[in-house]
Design brief:
The protein is of the alpha+beta class. It folds into three domains: 46-217 and 400-451, BirA Bifunctional Protein, domain 2; 253-380, YbaK/aminoacyl-tRNA synthetase-associated domain (YbaK protein, Alpha-Beta Complex); 469-569, Anticodon-binding domain (Rossmann fold, 3-Layer(aba) Sandwich). The strands form eight sheets. Strands 3, 7, 8, 9, 10, 11, 12, 21 and 24 form a nine-stranded mixed beta sheet that branches. α1 (21-28) packs across α12. The relative contact order is 0.13.
Amino acid sequence: MKWSQTLIPTLKESPSEAEIDSHKLMIRAGLIRRITAGAYAYLPLGTLVLNKVIDIVREEMNRAGAVEVFLPALQPLDLLEESGRLSVFGDDLITFEDRHGKTTALGPTHEEIVTDIVRNEINSYRQLPITLYQIQTKFRDETRPRFGVLRSKEFIMKDAYSFDVDYEGLNKSYKSMYEAYCRIFDRCGIDYIVVEADSGAMGGDVSHEFMVPSSVGEDILIRCLKCGYSANRERAEAAPVPRENHVSLQSLREVPTPNKHTIQEVGGFLDVKPNRMVKTMIYISNGQPIAVLLRGDHEVNETKLTKVLGQETVTLADHNTIEHVTGARVGFAGPVGLKIKIIADQAVSTLCNFVTGANKADTHLLNVNPDRDFKIDQVADIRYAVKGDKCPKCNHDLDISQGIEIGHVFKLGTKYSDALKAKFLDANGKEKSMIMGCYGIGVNRIIASLIERSHDENGIIWPLSLTPYKVIIIPVNVNDANSMQMANHIYDDLTNIAGIEVLLDDRDQRPGVKFKDADLIGIPIKIVIGKKFAETKELEIKLRKSGETFLTPPEEMRSRIESLFEMLSKP
């Protein structure tokens, strides 16, 4: 392709709305343009990269035995009601009313649609297993779209769904998809890690996320750098906090804490560290209030709490309920004297002589101890892991960092097949629910996360597998007939004979502008036809990533380029 015949609107400055490097560079390099909040148009360079990602995804899904389909973006609400997820998606669901008064959703995901199709078309074990996948646009009404295509209202996903006769079959399907994901991300040249994850709104018991470590990632990764244990923040466990032994129990004492409500305020007033304090949070479970106890320096993990309670969701009690249960206004709740169920985090159960609210206005209790002063009904891991926690596998220090989620695989079990009655007859003629798995990849996110990890102060650095063009030819002076003749000769040779994707910068621009644009858009190999070409008869080849430069005569150009491809393709 010749630069003059395509659309590559590069920018010198970053747009004001762009917050992170990938967003800035995707706009500056002319890959995308913002149309409205959370929606982007892909321009020619961006479309080339997007299609390369899609090609890799499609090839590996096909290789893994999945079968491609294309499902509608429009979804009837009755399917979401049937699965029980209409309320789960809540305000994230984008809906509209058609001319007939029927409310329809723009698909946030497609579990219900694909399960509906399968339940109507498959009824025998002889038709299973099968894995269906698609590459489709999804829609979610993000409260705050940001970071370009990393968090948008409209995005492209590859989603796959496996249907098996039993859990042994699900394990095989899951392993096949897991391995396919590793091949996809390896081919895309992405540095990723795999972490244990919570299934969230998708449901199921087992899931893994594929994460790209990044300081701008919105997901928190908990890892052990010694044994390799890794999980996202919602799923991560920590080794049990050791019990405090040989500690003398002090006398329970009530102290005034006027207008001191928060952990920080009370701790500062009493000169007590947060890890020696216990906060009491009142939740509603099954319509009844319960007390949840955590150390002052810990946060409740509602994902874990819902599982402990066997609920889909839990909610914090309102102020009136808290005052009715505790007898005091918000900020002074404590476990002593409460007449409701008490669930304590494991770290709380090991403490002695701690500080809590006194269930009395402007008052706290010192030297509170479980068993002596109140009864814990249930001890469980209901908090997020934090810095200073130990690995649950090897007791080494846990590392906490950020990451970008690019893929997620789930073992769904029968969550959707039970709800939507996706049944089959087994070999004995008995009706059973299909066993399902779900597997998603954020196609747009692959591009953005790669750029976050692969750029410098000059622009993007593409791997060969995703670059829009593998080679860019830059004649310094397009008005020089000899230079342009050579540029066109190399272009034709590499493009038509060798089948290499080449961009010829035939613009009548200053050399500095061309060089800066070439670095900005990140093409791996640059061929420069400079002012001295007429004298030296040599062409300059420069690698974008390393900056290495090679002088090569024209007749050796193709073989040199092919050898560089081989070198750049190595891990």
